[in-house]
Amino acid sequence: MSATSDPSSAAAADFVLRGAGELVTMSAPAAKGLGAIADGALAAKDGVIVWVGREAELPQAVDLAPDGLEVDAQGRCVLPGFVDAHTHVPFAGSRAAEYGERLGGVSYGEILARGGGINVTVKATRQASEEELARLSSLRYDSMLRHGTTTAEVKSGYGLTVVDEVKQLRAAATPHALRRELTFLGAHFLPPEYAGRAEDYVRLVCDEMIPACAPLARWCDVFCDEGAFTVDQARRVLVAGAAAGLSTRIHADELARSGGSMLAAELGCASADHLIHATGEEISAMKAAGVVAVMLPGTSYTLGIQFAPARAFLEAGVTIALASDFNPGSCNCENLQMMISLACQGMKLTPDEALYAATVGGAAALRRDDVGSLAVGKRCDFSVLAAASRTELPYHFGVNLVGDVVVGGRVVVRDGAVIHDAPALDPVSLFARDAPPEYGGQL
Ligand SMILES: [Zn+2]
Question: b vs e for 180-189, b when ≥16 Cβ sit within 10 Å of the residue's Cβ?
Answer without folding.
Answer: bbbbbbbbbb
